[in-house]
Amino acid sequence: MLWSLPIALMTAELGAMIPDMGGPVVWVDRAFGPFVAHCNAYTHLVANFFDNALYPVMFADYLREFHPALCFDGLPRYLLSASMLVCVTLLNLAGVANVANVSTLFTVLVVSPFFALVICGLPTLDPSAWLIGGASDAANDDAAHAAVSGGGGGVRWGTYLALLLWNTSGYDSVGALASEVENPGRDYPRAMVGSIVLISLVYLLPVSVGVSLDAAANLPTWTDGTLARVASDYVGEWLAKWISLGGALSSFGQLNALLCAAARIVVSAAEIGVLPPLLAKVHPVSGVPVAATLALSFGLFLVLSLPFSELVEFSMLFYGFTAGLEFLALIKLRTLELATPRPYRVPLGDSWPLAAFCLPPLGLCALLFALAERLSLYIFLATV
User: Fold this and answer.
1) What is the pLDDT of residues 28-61, one digit of tens each?
2) How far is it, in rounded angstroms, from Cα 229 to Cα 24?
3) Residues 288, 92: contact at Cβ < 8 Å?
4) Given this model, what pLDDT does residue 26 score?
5) pLDDT of amino acid 346
6) How far apart are CA 81 and CA 255, in angstroms?
7) 126 versus 78: which is more confidently predicted?
8) Which of 126, 165, 171, 332 suits a disulfide with 31, CB 3.0-4.6 Å?
């Protein structure tokens, strides 16, 4: 909550106050001027680039769990991820209304198998199993430490923090769609709070039930696809297949929405001169940024073969930089534009209360850099 709630409320205020295509790029430009806006646009584009590349990779991983015939490696795996990207690109070119309708449908399809797991596992819920060491012996504790450290001598705290924050980030991306929302002052706060509640429940409840169902000796070996295995062992193969399919649909739905937002970030970046003017053009009837969408998709084809963990670390390092600038923009715009209408505002005073509200996420942004792997830092510095 120290991360996701401030991002969501910040997005609600700035998105309602400045309902322009491009969202975060426009906010920082209004607050700090063209130089910082250019730096922010570059880093935001790179963050979106690596983040969007995660979902075709996850799509292939979940289908691997769904059926052995879909357990691909090498070129076939790449082509499977690429075919998913092609479908999402075509859907985005069809317009934002289609993106929204498909995302709503996929939300129901994705949440439903985890809801079924919670219902089936509630009778066996064991809170003592939630604490590593509470229900396991010393050997299992050693195995758990080895799993977290990646088999090395120490815990990879940078990777852990990046994954943890990545799972609860991205709310500010919808700020890029503010110009296409009928009443952002009303709808953004409702959407942000509703999303945080739903996402928190979808993470916490299935994992809590899964840990209670699974044997203590298995906990150190948890990895991608473990909930499907737990469902198969303790509920039935039908639920395992349903969860794996839900995970694949989740990856499809998330890329569908994020590509839509990222294309509008590209448009805004082109409008301030960071990218070629061609990418700023939108279709006169549908409002779809066709050139930006196609350019993003083409770039994503080039990085689909990178490992999942590396993509997350790269993405979150750049995202941490841009998120920090967005919170500073929130504080600065409260000072610069006192008279600008704010259909929604974070319910805090303009000085120290607002600064205190922004301090925890700013601290987490700084921690991302302090704990980052060397390769991630080198890529960030090279981009700068």
Assistant:
1) 999 999 999 999 998 988 888 888 888 888 888 8
2) 40
3) yes
4) 92
5) 92
6) 12
7) 78
8) 332
Q: Let me know if 104 is exposed, middle or buried by CB neighbors in 10 A (0-12, 13-18, 19+).
A: exposed
pTM (2 d.p.):
0.82
Q: Distance between CA atoms of 309 and 252, rounded to whole angstroms?
A: 19
Indicate if the alpha-carbon torsion angle 67, 69, 75, 80 is positive or negative. negative
Q: Are 37 and 28 in contact (CB under 8 A)?
A: yes
d(CA 240, CA 321): 38
CATH of domain 4-383: 1.20.1740.10
Sign of CA dihedral 229, 231, 234, 238: negative
Average pLDDT over residues 221-234: 84
- The helix/strand/coil state of 263 is helix
DSSP-derived secondary structure for 9-50? HHHHHHHHHS--TTTHHHHHHHHH-HHHHHHHHHHHHHHHHH
Q: Which two tokens stand for residue 86?
A: 């092609």
Q: Which token pair is 117?
A: 């797991």
DSSP letter for 278, please: G
* Per-chain mean pLDDT for the chain: 86
Contact at 8 Å (CB) between 119 and 210? no
Rg (CA), the chain: 21
DSSP state of 150: T
Residues 44, 46, 50, 53, Cα dihedral to 10°: 90
d(CA 318, CA 341): 31
